[in-house]
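Tutorial, part two.
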Amino acid sequence: MNGLKYRRLDLHVHTPASADFIRPGKVTDEQIANGIVEEALKKGLDGIAITDHNSGEWVDRIKAASKGKALVVFPGVEITTQAGAGVHILALFDPSKGAAHVRDLLSKLELKPEEHGKEITVVKKSPSDVITKISECDALAVPAHINSSHGVFKEMSGQPRTCVIQHHSLRAVEATDYSDEEKKKNKKRAVDLLDGSDLEYKRKLAVIQSSDNPGPPGTDGHSIAGIGLRFSSFKMEKIDLLSLRNCFDDPDVRIKLKAPEVLVYPMVERVRVVGGFLDACEVEFHGGLNSVIGSKGSGKSLLVELLRFSLDQLSTNESISDDHRSKLEHRLKTYGTVEVTMVLETGKEITVKRQYDPENGDPFDDPSIDIARLFPVLFLSQNEIIKIAEDEEQQLAFIDRFFDFKAHKEAIDQLEAELKGLDKQFSAALKAFIQSEELKKRRATIDAEIKGIDESLKNPAFEKFSLAEAKQQGLQSSVAHLKDLSTRIDPAIKYFIDVPIPAYASSVADDPCLKRAAKAIADARTLVTNKLRELGDGFVAIGKILITEEQSSSSSYKAAKSDYEDVVRKMGGTYQTIATKRSKLVKELSDVQTRYGKAKELVDKAKQISEDRNGRLDSLAAVYSAFSNERKAKCKKFDEESAQKLKITLLEASNVDVFKQKLGQLKKGSYLRDADIEKICRSVTPREFVTKIISFAARRQPDKLKDLAAKVSLELDAVVTLANYLLDVVEVEELLEMQYKAMPQDSPEIKYMLPDGSYAPLIALSVGQKCTAMLIMTLSDGTMPIIIDQPEDSLDMKSIWTDVCMKLRNGKEKRQFIFTTHNSSLAVASDSDSFIVMEADANKGEVSLTGSMDHDPIGNEVMNYLEGGLITYKRKYAKYDVERREK
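Running the prediction step on this input gives:
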């Protein structure tokens, strides 16, 4: 069976068996019977009750007309009882019964056949007596149109009326004032008076509405056209009297006085397993509350783990994750597959299949789908909620599951990736700065040496050569620079050629507007690449001119050099030695100048890189702040929905554990104490700290760290020692990364209301109280499916009804829950829409039954697994002495 679903029933319909039925012209009884059935189907009804005035004459005729059609017919009768102007009571029989059962009831009420069909016929019994007699005939009694003429509220008063409402066999009444806005405002509708709060009636009763199929306006009586003008929606699996009784007994979750809203929300439809302990097992899930029951070892927990595996949403807790992998290894086994069909929040149905094959990454049949993002589910394996309650980091991750934080995560990941790229550039620029400072000193030293040597080498030939040499070096440097610039053009052209044009969805790829957009982009690329090629050609032309200049100058340089070398040879001795030394220094100076030029090029970019990094860091801080604001809003929502049982405060950027951990790892060998690291992490952010260290790195001037030392309350020498150690031992990129990888994190402060009304933090609670607090959050508002393995574990049993069952009862119309459980309160009192009964032997588990517990054999299995059987339950019921306690 597929579990509970809403069925539209009109439980008050008259036929020609009622004397005031308005016949539609000259038609046969058969045509009228068919017309009644067709009208009910046209109105979207799943069932009707034939309730003629003091008669069951037409019951079998309507049942015959409905045969083979999707309409269930309840035999019934509307009885006029002795009170006021006559109080009407409906009697409803199971659809398996017929007119004979109605006649038997009327006989027991001493109504003669010739009195049947007439509203004015009055049974010589009180409404209470008639209700008793109806119950004795295995039928359900429902006082008709209780708020109007011939209704209990209109025709009776005082104690007799109260006695009817409090009758032990009465489960429901029919009313016609549900849509009366004035009464609704004053809380005077039948549904308001019978909600259990009224001091006179002290009774909660189901209230339904039916059509009483009225005739056209201005007429009295009943008509075919009036069928279904009012109806009620009943949540049931089979349309029969037992299901109807169960709806009457739990109207809050089983009856709606209007058509329920059709909601589309994500849900797991079915799972199919191939291989392992649950081989060939296929399970259909209900869109509401599913309770998986069975004996220990039947595969209940495994079913949850297989769903978790196939939907790729593993626990972040190491021990829970290890247990999950162990279950897959031993109970699914290598190459076993799990196939899950689900409905997305858009209403689209998709199926994914995953194979357990750890060596190949447990592949999906379609690796392009990110199922964890496409279909998020709140999974909790057995005892996982306890682990979460004991770990602050896990609690934060748990809160994040309740909203779509992936946009924040993606923004953070993107910014971190960009920062990582900038880190490399900034690190290179910093190293270049340090190198350029050293090269600048070396250049000045060599230049001074050369100038000193030049004084000792002075003569006309040397002076001429010296000028020619400087000119030639300048020209060679210009040619090299131009060549370097030209090498940057081809990569730029390649970039513009290779970058792809945006891809459009196939459904709109031929749209003229998008085709024009694609052409515009292609034209722009062509324009840029053509301009770059022209620029390249220009570089080549200029380069030829420069090369010609350099070649022309080269002959003069060579002649001057030759004359100078002749002088050096003639003078010999010391002069020649000094000249050789000068030649080496000039060559070294040229090399230093080249290296300095390259370093200076990087240094010149440092300011822009720094600004870009700071911009990214500011953006990252803004994303984290927005993330925190959403978390705060969710925490506030938790507070509201917990009915003040929880107080959750988000302490923004208060957790510096990651900063401490990273800095603690990096400082090893710096002789700084852990207490000093604690001071630093509590006093400054990673961004501030690293910025100060980097500013110190350029020239290692202690004054650069004075502000930092004062802010963290440490001696300057200690901070300088730490900074020198970090810069000598740790890569600059690793230090820079700490600015965004060690950012302070939010931390939640969760408090739970104790019995005395005070609040205590999770750390001070019992395990049961901790789990209750976390479950209250779990069952908070939302549409994400919730799948939990034994949520009742370690719960405070006293709070299961108020904190768990009530939330499930209110939430299962708009959200899917799948629980494995041994707890009858959780499964039965919450009104599970479908039970999944699992059985197993030593080698194999299977699903033996699915569906509502309204009928056997599932009802019997629920009794056996959750109560220990009928005898056990009866003994408990007797010892609780329920009837006495109700008084």
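The first strand starts at residue 5 and ends at 13. In part three we will examine how such features are distributed along the chain.
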